[in-house]
Write a structure and sequence with these properties.
Radius of gyration: 19 Å
Order of helices and strands: EEEEEEEEHEHHHHHHHHH
Structural class: alpha+beta
CATH superfamily of the largest domain: Regulatory protein AraC
Largest sheet: 9 strands, mixed
Number of helices: 10
Distance between the termini: 21 Å
Number of strands: 9
CATH topology of the largest domain: Jelly Rolls
């Protein structure tokens, strides 16, 4: 995904905007209060640049469509559909959205939730993508859309499990990526739809395969296969949003999946919806 050209300031020592509870950049949508949670949807325009800011209270950001690159003084991450980002209170960051903008569901926690937050979780930024976290995020958004007599109970349970996933995630490491890993990432981003292998990437990087795998997971928080699947799902989600985009069968073939059933399984695991459900929700 191509993000807006960054105009981030040099370093993080200058001015910064402090946002109060329930306040976000972008166009605010519906705010829902359920089970001691304040849940706000925010929509961002294509190529939007969000300046350096911090939030008064910790919150979870669930990316439901579009995407952005987020940066702070000690982390950077690409956040596409299905991403879950934990922002500690007062954590300073800035964002650059891609050509399709983005929609985020932001979840803030009332006083009754504070005892449930592990101290290490509450103070450490975290970025999760794929697997249980993305599936749970999709379920939360689904329950908010249904809003029946048991939705409050369901949302409370799902958010509790999502917080557990955040706590279990590997803490961010500020160590610098080796140059060979940066080159490998560039190649993966350029060729993710074809059959890249770890052996091929490690050989090109000039390191042993097992070392490549360990270093990749340490810095990226996932395996090479998981990272490639995320890129493929990002691409497929963008195509599904196009009014005259390829059919689901075509996307399965063009996206490098073995067949349509495989594509559907992976897409639902990452986004919480089948490709058909995702396309229908965007119409």
């Amino acid at each position: 995904m191509q993000y807006a050209r960054r105009v981030f300031g040099p370093g993080f020592g200058g001015g910064m905007i402090q946002l109060q509870r329930g306040t976000y950049f972008g166009s605010p949508g519906v705010t829902t209060r359920v089970a001691g949670l304040r849940i706000t949807e925010a929509t961002y325009a294509p190529q939007a640049l969000v300046p350096r800011h911090a939030h008064e209270h910790a919150y979870l950001c669930l990316v439901t469509s579009g995407g952005f690159e987020e940066r702070s003084s000690n982390h950077a991450a690409d956040c596409g559909p299905g991403t879950v980002v934990w922002h500690p209170a007062g954590e300073v960051h800035e964002d650059a959205f891609g050509p399709r903008g983005g929609v985020c569901v932001n979840i803030e926690f009332g006083e009754e939730w504070l005892p449930r937050l592990e101290p290490s979780t509450a103070s450490a930024w975290a970025h999760l993508r794929g697997g249980p976290a993305s599936w749970l995020a999709g379920r939360v958004c689904g329950e908010l859309a249904v809003s029946d007599s048991v939705s409050s109970l369901a949302v409370e349970g799902l958010v509790s499990v999502l917080l557990a996933e955040v706590h279990r995630s590997s803490p961010y490491s500020g160590s610098r990526k080796p140059a060979w890993l940066e080159r490998s990432l560039e190649r993966i981003r350029a060729e993710y739809r074809r059959g890249l292998t770890v052996a091929e990437l490690a050989s090109e990087a000039g390191v042993h395969r097992s070392h490549f795998v360990r270093v990749f997971h340490f810095h990226m928080g996932c395996t090479v296969a998981e990272y490639i699947r995320r890129l493929r799902i990002d691409w497929a989600a963008a195509e599904l949003r196009r009014p005259n985009g390829p059919s689901i069968a075509q996307l399965s073939r063009l996206g490098g999946f073995s067949d349509q059933a495989h594509f559907t399984r992976v897409f639902k695991r990452v986004t919480g919806r089948t490709p058909a459900e995702f396309r229908a929700s965007r119409q």
